[in-house]
Amino acid sequence: MKVEKAAKQLEALGNPTRLELYRVLVRAGHGGLPVNQVQERLGIPASTLSHHLQRLVQNGLVSQERQATTLICRAQYPAMAALLGFLADECCADEVCAASEQAA
Hints:
It is built from 6 helices and 3 strands. By secondary structure, it is α+β, with helices and mostly antiparallel strands.
C-alpha cells in the first residue's frame, strides 16, 4: 500500500462520526446494513450520514449496493486488512533484538 492511500484512508477515519459509522459496518459483517438501519444506530440525519458514507466509499473503505429500493452498505474487509497491515508490517523493524544485545 502506498503512503498516500493510507494517509487518505486514515484521514477519512479521523472524523469521530465516520469512525463510529465504519465500526458499525465492520460489526455488521459481510452482509452489511441497509442505510436506514445505520442511521437508526447512529442517530444522525440522513444528509449527514450520506456525506460521511461518501467519504468512506471514495477512499475504498465501504461499498454500497442497491437491492431494489434498499441501499446496503458494507465495510470492505480487504481494504481494512491492507490498512492495518500497512501500519503493522514493519512494527519494531528498526529495534535491535534484545537477545542479540544480551549475548554481546
